[in-house]
Design goal:
The protein is built from 9 helices and 12 strands. By secondary structure, the protein is an alpha/beta fold. The strands form 4 sheets. A 6-stranded mixed beta sheet has the order 6-2-8-1-12-9, sandwiched between helices. Helix 1 (22-32) crosses helix 4 and helix 5 (132-140) packs parallel to helix 9. The radius of gyration is 17 Å and the shape is globular.
Length: 252
């Protein structure tokens, strides 16, 4: 069965413990069911060259600091898949590695989507040597996997500006954050992937929304899966703390 491609706005690692976004992630998992596996592109694994995780039991990586002990002790023991890693390697040229595991861009979200941790997961790194269009072109190589029962997933944020983030609950989003978030959604709706690749020209003050590109690049991996006319929908369409977009996208 053809599987969807999904982008998750993951926000704070604290979302692993609950909060307002988990319900939509759980509903998504219930709607999808149990795929044969997941290929996740997370904002939190950047490499020189391209890598794919190839362990049977990937480590739960706590790649953050100064959070509650409960979060630092949390484990997400989902299996890896050497077969899926080999398939991704064959499609993309990625080097299979055991030097990474599941970072919080992956497990803080998927612990809600598949709480039983019973869906095999591999991570594909963000090659820091590639330009935006090269990331998009690389992502197209993953398309056959959707017809092999594999969910292609990305994890980051449309808008990710920690310097302007407001700690108070219910903080009003900045106008530039809302504007960029809506511009990304509109580009998906009209299938305008060139606009997403050239994100700097997508909206006024785009660089306030994307001061560094690692949280935005996973968006391109999901856009690249979208066929002409293929359905697109959004979930958790909110701006957290004024400047972190939690908006998710489902293709198909």
């Amino acid at each position: 069965m053809r599987q969807p491609a999904v982008f998750f706005g993951h926000g704070s690692p604290m979302n692993a413990l609950g909060g307002p976004y988990g319900a939509a992630w759980r509903a998504l998992g219930e709607a999808i069911g149990k795929p044969n596996g997941v290929v996740m592109i997370s904002a939190h694994w950047e490499t020189r060259g391209l890598g794919v995780t190839a362990q049977e039991r990937p480590e739960t990586i706590h790649d953050f600091g100064n959070f509650p002990r409960e979060l630092h002790e949390m484990q997400y023991p989902a299996p890896g898949s050497r077969a899926l890693a080999a398939r991704v390697s064959a499609l993309t040229g990625a080097v299979q590695t055991k030097a990474w595991g599941l970072d919080h861009g992956t497990w803080s979200v998927l612990c809600h989507v598949w709480p039983e941790a019973d869906v095999p997961i591999v991570q594909l790194s963000l090659n820091s040597e590639l330009a935006a269009r090269q990331h998009y072109d690389l992502a197209k190589a993953l398309k056959p996997l959707r017809d092999e029962g594999i969910v292609i997933a990305g994890s980051g944020d449309f808008v990710h500006n920690l310097r302007t983030w407001k700690r108070e609950d219910g903080a009003e989003p900045y106008a530039w954050a809302t504007g960029f978030n809506e511009a990304v959604k509109a580009a998906f709706q009209r299938g305008d992937h060139d606009a997403l690749i050239d994100w700097v020209g997508l909206a006024e003050d785009a660089q306030l929304s994307v001061p560094t590109d690692e949280h935005f690049l996973p968006v391109l991996y999901i856009a690249a899966q979208q066929e002409p006319g293929e359905a697109v929908s959004f979930f958790n369409d909110r701006i957290d703390g004024g400047s972190i977009s939690m908006t998710g996208v489902r293709i198909g």
